[in-house]
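REQUEST
  id: r-88c1
  op: predict_structure
  target: SusF/SusE family outer membrane protein
  payload:
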Amino acid sequence: MKLLKYIPVVFLSLITFASCDSDLDKVTYHEEDAKIGALNPIASSYVLDDKKADEVVDTFKWTKASFGYDAAIIYKLEVDVAGKDFANKKTISSLIGKTQAAITHKELNNVLLSLDSIYNIPPRTEATYDIRISATIGDVITPLYTNVVTSKITTYLSYPKNVYMIGADFGGWNWSDAGIVDMTPVWGLDGTFWAIRYFKAANGFKWNTSKAWDGSDFYELDSKEGYTTNGGNAFVPADGFYIVYMDMPNKKITIKAAEVYGMGDCFGGWSTATYPFTASGNKMSITTTGAGELRMYAGYPAVGGDWWKMEFIILNGKIEYRGKGGDQDRVSVAAGKKVTLDFNAGTGTIE
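RESPONSE
  id: r-88c1
  status: 200
  body:
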């Protein structure tokens, strides 16, 4: 028996000063007359790159499908891990009537990461994926599928470029306040940030990757160390100086007593963890013992002897952090100068 499906097309005929009548025509759709197009070959492999996130990684092209009459065809570019028969297919792009889709590194990466989480494939790992086009003209019509093309694709795991800390002592819970903490990236360690501040135990704080109450704020990652949480905020155990070290790749936030050191000739040498600053109230200070370039850093086990990965200087009365940058401008000091840091205000003095 020939299978028929009907798709209604409604048109209206309006007559002045008369009631509206509608006629219903029916277009007959024969499944056996439908013809799918073909998906063009693609590259055998791709390495997705977060530095090219908004650039087109490839333009996927296919030939037009036919459903036996002039219809608005919905095409979907679908993907799944190879050999899974599209059981957990994800849509890379959905278009009406078009037969090509320019896909960026970011778009493809985001879709593949969602698949990788299902199959426990680690980010930055090469995996093989099946890609096809589905074509349909409505929910009541069974989609047509093109040939499947296969490619080996390496994803990337992107991290936010900025992390901000807000709290009662850091901006007064107001994202537009100058007191918001802009955490400093650790040199050479993507997705890792740090900040030293004087904290009060009674006052909570939290983080976000944008300066806004956009629902993305957080007070912990998968694991935490050195602080407690309550009511959706983080708290330190006692008043004092702390370093916040946020390790997004390992999904951990650590807060511990801050250690700040001098480095170089003006402090006596180039040994790490040897010339510590001393805390007094909400400031930290040290006195130079020789003449030389002023260099300072935050001590943290994760960077080991690479102290310059968390380096900073005083320039024009302000604390300037190296972050991901190169060597900073040099400031020379004489022996016997007291160097004082006010991390909360972002200022420093040499006197």
